[in-house]
Amino acid sequence: MTPLTIGLFGFTVALAIGAYRKRKIGLVVWLALLSAAFFFTGKTAFLVLGMISAALLLGQPLFVLMGGLGMALLATVSGLKTFEEQVLVVRQLLGLAGKEVLLAIPFFVVAGELMTQGSLARRLIEFMKAAFGWIPGGLAVSAVAGCVFFAAISGSSPVTVVAIGSIMVPALIKAKYPEGFSIGLLTTAGSLGILIPPSIPMIVYCIMVSSATPIDPTDLFIAGVVPGLFIGALLAIYSVTQGVRFKIPREPFSRARLWEATRQGVWSLLLPVIILGGIYSGIFTATEASAVSVVYALAVEWFIHREMDKKKLLVVAEGSMTVMGSLLVIIALAIVLNYFLVDQQVPDLMVEWMKTLNLTPTTFLLVVNLLLLVVGMFMDIMSAILIIAPMLAPMAAAMGINPIHMGIIFIVNLEIGYLTPPVGLNLFVSSSLFKKGLGFVIRAVIPTVVIMLGSLAAITWVPSMSTGLVEALKEKPKAVVMPVFDAGVPIDSADAGSAAPKVKSLEEIMREAREKAAREAAGIDGGEAAAPPAPAPAPTEPPRVKSLEELMREAKEKTAREAAPEDAGT
Length: 570
Fold this sequence. Notes:
Blueprint: H1 3-18, H2 23-40, H3 43-58, H4 62-76, H5 83-97, H6 104-117, H7 120-132, H8 138-154, H9 157-174, H10 179-189, H11 200-208, H12 217-245, H13 255-281, H14 286-304, H15 310-343, H16 346-356, H17 361-378, H18 381-398, H19 403-417, H20 425-433, H21 438-461, H22 464-474, H23 500-521, H24 526-530, H25 542-562, H26 564-569
């Protein structure tokens, strides 16, 4: 893209935003700039600039821009002009419907809605307050722990903020915690919903990078455990320091209260254990786990807690369908644009370009982090995954970076994007939920964003935080091999007999047997001759020992024939 193109694009965006309320003036400016772009830039740049500026002027959402831009580029640049050729795009979308892991997204959305409308979230918080309320800053630590546990159920960051924040922020303010600290802490801790498994963005990431670097969602789930707990621990330490700083009175520890909270919240505590335990133990897949979470949450809320009724079920259905409808449209239309990028070999060209820069893995990760932090400011996480991930994944693979490590870096960066203006989703959720201005919420999250940036640096430069648990769970015990065999050759292998150590060991044993027989034939007395031979190796392998005895017997018979006169007399 030439400097003139970039300048025209920036000028177009500025005028489009300034003239948004005056549609007629904006339309004239837009047509004038497009005319200039048509004469001074290439066809592709003209089309891209035109579509982006038109979407801005008309106030269209991002998925409309992605879909329209993808179809226009396929028709003009890729040459898919006829209906028959554009059917290829529809086939790509049908291929998306065939991905089993995609089914996990609606199930986790429904499970989160059920727990928000029911009492699972509230009972979980009561348990955390009883368990951690006695330490300095204990109520704030309880809020962070509640977000960690609820994130292991819902898989969504905004849902975690709403479910835990709506209960804990008023409680923190009532306990004399500063309002800014309370809102900032819960807004940030809620973002753990996309890092601690199960995570909807992780599932989408695995789908989008499957063509370049296939990743099992279960592996990415496992990889998110340690980074998620690490960030949660840092936020808890920050909560303790603020509890000491503001001299917040502590609640006395009560075993009776803890027991009652455990009894009331046992079903809430069991849900993440069942879901994550089932995934990690291999009892069921991530998709099956999402279905189990829905059935479990519905059964507990309806039959045990009795907090669910037909009216609330309608609210759950409405909220779930709204979220899923918008999400599936975004995914489908993003795949259209991704199909164009793959058709034009854009990811391959970017990989080749990155190779020319002679970047080391360290400098590459530094550039990626800066890029994703900027992207997170201007894109929601789903759009960023759908557009950026398919291009960065092959580049990271070419640099020798573990795909799972790259996936966690991607998720943590966009987790921070939830907290940065102008498009930080959690900022808007908190502003609406707590009835505070956006500027107030932005100032409130600054200290916790600094903690998140420090966590990102640690996760980036210590890959074992992401990959260590995955590798540990995948390690299998080595097979026990008998010492006489080569450990690298299976016992029942067809060519096992060709292994040098086995042949050499047998020859040595046979040679020893013959030498002993020769010594007996050279004049050793009958007592010694009648003495039993040296004890053979333990018969751990009967066929081998039997063969050796036969050889020794033959050697003794030969010795006996040589001493025929003496034997004849007897």
